[in-house]
What does this fold into?
Amino acid sequence: MKEKEIYRKRFERHHDELRWLYMELYDNGSMFAELCDHMERFYEERNGELKSSDLHREASGNWYKGNDMLGMMFYIDNFAGNMKGVQSRLDYLEECNVNYIHLMPFLETPRERSDGGYAVSDFRKVQEDLGSMEDLEELTAACHKKGINVCMDFVMNHTSEEHEWARKARSGDGEYMSRYFFYDNGEIPSQYEKTVPQVFPTTAPGNFTWLPDAGHYVMTTFYPYQWDLNYRNPRVFNEMMYNFLYLANRGVDIVRIDAVPYIWKELNTPCRNLQQVHTIVRMMRMISEIVCPGILLLGEVVMEPEKVVPYFGTLEKPECHMLYNVTTMATTWHTVATRDVSLLKRQLDIVNSLPGEYLFLNYLRCHDDIGWGLDYKTLAAQGMEERSHKQYLNDYFQGYAGGSNSRGELYNADPVTGDARFCGTTASMCGIERAGFEGNPRMMEQAEDLDIMLHAYMFLQSGIPVLYSGDEIGQVNDYTYKEDPARAADSRYLHRGKMNWKQAENISNPDTVEGRIFRSLSCLEQIRKKEKVFVSEAETRTVETGDRSVLCIKRALEGEEIIGLFNFSEEERHISLEDTEGVYREMLSGQETGLKHISLLPYGFYYLKKI
It folds into this structure.
């Protein structure tokens, strides 16, 4: 089939719905016609290898839902200096069994007001010290030759105040002012403030910033230097879609849509999760399926799983392909601090009850802080009050309470509400940092066991597991950020340290922390790739163990069954799964066992396959 015919069929399949949604939102036929013209142009500019990949992925459908997907996220400069450096480290990523890399924000941002790369000043230019768009294309092409998918952030909600649009708007150009939310007095901003929550009440209070030189207020939901885009203006939607397609044509496979719920603003609402957001994401999904159907949309929606479900859309009208499993991540660390799996079990039951087509990304740590957005209604029934429990969690992971060996720092601590978020690497939160500092072999063994058990549990969840760079070698907090004036006020840089390649040289040495963790994770990753019950459509559920510290997850598919047992306590536990019949083989040791009498070492785990 000729390329023009392929494009025409994709376009015809989606045209009517796309036009209906666009006209419902904007009622502007000429702007819709312009969008369609540009879509065809971007398709024509897409290179042959990407078009071939699109066809293959269209035909296979659920190519990304297998049991071989393993991700890793990292900042380019921290990982390897620049894009060419990342390209030189692809063999290492292969050794890590990684076939999906998330390149943290790399588009041009002002150095002093970057927000970690999320204040974009040019959507078509790479930060100069990281490389160029040509380097990005070379990197994605090299990744594809090794079967590695590339993910990037697309910051749709806002631009930097240094973006060309913002500079023209600040100068008083009405066309560009209309691309943001500008007001010459505080009346309307004060009305917004009545219903719109604050994201950073301590470091960036309020949702508007006064610009003395412009004589206007501008909406700034996140930071004063990040100006919210006005998607009620069709020019904003069109231009951002052109940016999206431009980046897709550089070879990106997965586009992470930053801060999805915030995209649409409406007076007298919380400006979160409004229906128009779903219209925009649905249109974006259709545009990608017409021009570049090999692309996946990953939504950043920081809410509990049952509330993020609308961002998947429906089976007939899908929106995002994948979403982050944020609440389960936070609940996992709550479980570490309380040694009580009941809330985590409930959380996993909710996720597992969702349609199998819904795909979550699971992780222990990422570039961001941990916000304690737990199910406090359930915890209240257990006698845990929200404010005091958040205080306990932050104290625990700083190493101040609960017999904790964790190390880390708070982010955005609010003395009025008592709320705060937490920063730290997986290894430091498990106690590896403290054990190393104190030279305590017994503490180190326990910390390693906790670290490995948590990864084993994550790999058994339904979805795609993603590592944060350095976790594969147990890398600890990096306190040198305090020496950089541009970063010292942002404790999130504590867990955004540079990759320690000297330590990575130890991955083959079983006498080192790096070697033991790397080897253990590699074994688990190989099991996951080998066993078909790890595919996303497998039936996954929790099983009651009768022990508040032991979590049991069961996966089954086509007559095969694997049970995972995970001890969240530093004490040995003894359980009996009375209702589970049959003989099982422990997949790491090869030993056969029944499930009537099981002993789990402190922070121990089992992968048990039914024989």
About this structure: The CA atoms of residues 396 and 403 lie 8 Å apart. Residues 3-26 form the longest helix (24 residues).
